[in-house]
Design brief:
about 270 residues, alpha+beta, 8-stranded antiparallel sheet, globular
Length: about 270
């Protein structure tokens, strides 16, 4: 089948069109299942494996925030600080940078939960804390064992991994049961309290975990072993939500309103 066409309308005029490619582990596809890209933040539930391997007493919020691309909401920032405390580390130890208009310096970065989890993993396994983001560090070597494909540097400074759309569909089927359970228990930490597609999928459909990634990517997996991946060809993440409605039949996702700065609905993404 062709890629899913998502249109953005303002009034009655189409302002933009996005093509979303989809692959599933069942062999179903829309568009090109061989499309190649980097996993970016969708890889976080797998990158969190060394953290979970290092401790038997992790709480759900600690694991969920290690898998998160957070919005610096109070509960998310508290979870980051909790993981830092477990690591015996401070915000200065985080090797991510700063993000404009975010609170609390490095802690406010949307990848700080992943970085805090990496520090805690180093502490648990007896690896040096720094420079944990370098490919030659034992932590990144362990993570690299969990992936295949070319590597590059992600936006937060750690390695990211290339794959195909078909490979991405299987990604989260490899997440351990403990990580899946924590993401399901605390979905609001993974994305955000409102409007995050990965969080909303986990709230609306039992058995699913999901994680969005930069450049218009979403990976998801069901507890029955099914996996899916959606990638906007032009990197527009706003196209993912209505495309997911087509793939999984989620009526709540079929149309996203376009609003003015006054909050008025002036168009739609569908």
């Amino acid at each position: 089948m062709d890629a899913i066409r998502v249109t953005v309308r303002r009034g009655n005029v189409v302002e933009a069109t996005h093509r979303v490619h989809v692959a599933t582990t069942d062999g179903e596809s829309w568009g090109d299942p061989g499309l190649a890209f980097f996993l970016r933040s969708s890889a976080k539930p797998i990158q969190a494996i060394p953290f979970v391997e290092g401790y038997a007493d992790l709480d759900d919020d600690e694991i969920a925030i290690a898998c998160a691309s957070h919005r610096a909401e109070p509960a998310q920032l508290a979870a980051v600080r909790k993981v830092l405390a477990r690591a015996g580390a401070t915000p200065d130890d985080l090797e991510n940078g700063l993000q404009e208009c975010r609170p609390e310096g490095k802690v406010g970065h949307n990848c700080s939960g992943k970085h805090a989890g990496m520090l805690a993993a180093c502490r648990a396994h007896g690896w040096p804390l720094h420079p944990y983001r370098e490919p030659a560090h034992p932590l990144q070597q362990r993570i690299a064992e969990l992936f295949e494909g070319e590597t590059a540097v992600d936006g937060c400074g750690v390695p990211t991994f290339a794959t195909t759309l078909q490979g991405a569909a299987a990604l989260l089927t490899r997440a351990p049961a403990r990580i899946r359970a924590a993401m399901r228990a605390r979905p609001e930490l993974v994305g955000g309290s409102t409007g995050a597609t990965d969080t909303d999928l986990m709230r609306l459909r039992d058995g699913w975990i999901a994680k969005g990634g930069a450049e218009g990517l979403l990976c998801a997996a069901h507890e029955d072993g099914r996996g899916i991946a959606l990638k906007a060809e032009d990197g527009a993440y706003r196209a993912i939500r209505p495309a997911l409605a087509v793939v999984l039949g989620i009526d709540e996702f079929r149309e996203t309103p376009v609003r003015s700065s006054l909050g008025d609905v002036v168009g739609s993404i569908a």
